[in-house]
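Q: Make up one entry.
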Amino acid sequence: MRLTRRSGLMTLTLLAGALLTQPAKADYPDQPIRVICGYAAGSGADIIVRYFAAKLEKLAGQTVIVENRPGAFGNIATQATTQAKPDGYRIMLSGTATVVGNLFLIKDIPFDPIKDLEPVSSLLRNGFMLTVAPNSKINSVPDLVAQIKNKPTARYGQSSGNSLASAELLLALTDTKAQRVSYKSSAEMVPDIASGDLDFGMIDAVFALGQAKQNRIKLIAGTPSTRVPGAADVRTMVEAGLPGYEFSANWAAWFPKGTPQPIVNKMHGWLDEIVKSPETKEFLAKNGADPLPNSVAGTNALINSDYDKWEMIAKAAKLEKE
């Protein structure tokens, strides 16, 4: 009897110790949540991140702070996320290019963005816009191709991995070459497009639509296979004269690897609710994007599919890591 009682006491002691070491998932969140954003403040992508952050704040019942960490095609933000404590209080909202695309753009990444991150939820799909100077005579892809071929050194601007890939895919499919000029944000690129210093630039639809309304750039075509929401009068790249072209940017949310699954599931539920709301659909449509709801497993599958897409683009465009 003494042995049985002692064994029972030991069991209770071990159980109590185990409970004390478990994260207080039921109380999550009990402090502010920080959203890591790899895009410059005020950019089209930043507008999207801040929309989701504001909605998340209401559902989570905690302050949600956006941390802008632009640079290196979003790799600075990605690395910050992988190094964060996996407790559910650091989350990155970003295009999948910052995770899978950078594997084809950046040399010697000191971490594995796929293994070191925990996908939470897919968010949206947006396109890019082929843009030129507002007073340019270019009105189609063939017009642009002719200009590039007739110039000793044509130039294009890029401000992100997706911006670069969508432009390089255009050059690869038209068998043309242009010098790449890098910018930290689309906002920095626009003045050089407007002045004609750049022959063209690929800008995310969110920011491009606003700039076009102010007559700072001219929209030639959208990169998705269908016309960009909010820009029904702008042709697709195929309609603008480039058969076979399609490029869309998917967005998702990631926690650091090792974040407890109950927290992942709770955050997924909040983000999924935001994505599926009519208000979000309306907001995204005005900003050239579509909602992209998915399960946690479906988000993993989407990221794997995007990796395959980037591998294809990298080969077609002969992208070299920098």
Summary: Confidence is low (pLDDT under 50) at residues 1-24.
